[in-house]
Amino acid sequence: MVEPGSAESDRNGARRRRARKRLLTAGIVVVVVVAIDQVTKSIAEKDLTHPIHLVGPLGLGLTYNSGTAFSIFTGNPMVLSAVVAVMIVLLALMVFWAKRTSTAICLGLILGGAVGNISDRIFRSHHGAVVDFITLTHWPTFNVADSSITVGVVLLVVLQWRQSRHALREGNDDDRS
């Protein structure tokens, strides 16, 4: 039993506060990503009646994607939604287990994108398709949720790579002593 006011109790309390902070931070990221994603999709559906060239390879053009990234696995959006729902639960658990706020933010970006896209599949009346509207030359059309997932994954990989390099360096320093 841990005595209240003991050093171990203080450490446990601090650990719980940091965990709550990571969960809250990730939750805020998820809410912001979903809000921006859904607002931009609604605007695109309402106002994007024909493709618009913005600058260079960037443009806007309304499409609907019943598959995943690059239109893979089209044709059965309900099975895809079930798989995504399981992934959302796993991502939420990963946020809960995250040891760093930066990791929680990356996972929040990924989770927000997943929630934004599954919301389309469930609540928009496009037979399980996701609204896509951002175009790049020689690249599939995508949306804010897709961008959030991509940025989250890239940042998470970079963070993990940097942490593993740091751990290797720390281990090598120990070996020289």
What does this protein look like?
The protein is α+β, with helices and mostly antiparallel strands. It has one domain. The protein has helices at 7-47, 77-97, 101-123, 144-176; strands at residues 52-55, 58-65, 130-136, 139-142. A 4-stranded antiparallel β-sheet has the order 1-2-3-4. A hairpin with a 2-residue loop joins strand 3 and strand 4. It starts with 6 loop residues before the first helix and ends with a helix.
Topology:
Blueprint: H1 7-47, E1 52-55, E2 58-65, H2 77-97, H3 101-123, E3 130-136, E4 139-142, H4 144-176
Antiparallel strand pairs: 1-2, 2-3, 3-4
Helix pairs in contact: 1-3, 2-3, 3-4
Distance N to C terminus: 38 Å
Low-confidence stretches: none
Q: Structural class of the secondary elements?
A: alpha+beta
Described by strand count, sense and barrel closure, the largest sheet is:
4 strands, antiparallel
How many helical stretches? Answer: 4
Bin the strand percentage. Answer: 5-15%
Can you count the beta strands?
4
The best one-word shape is elongated
- Helical proportion? 55-70%
Count of spatially separate domains: 1
Radius of gyration (Å): 21 Å
Spell out the helices and strands N to C. HEEHHEEH
Order of strands, main sheet, comes to 1-2-3-4
- Whole-number average pLDDT? 86
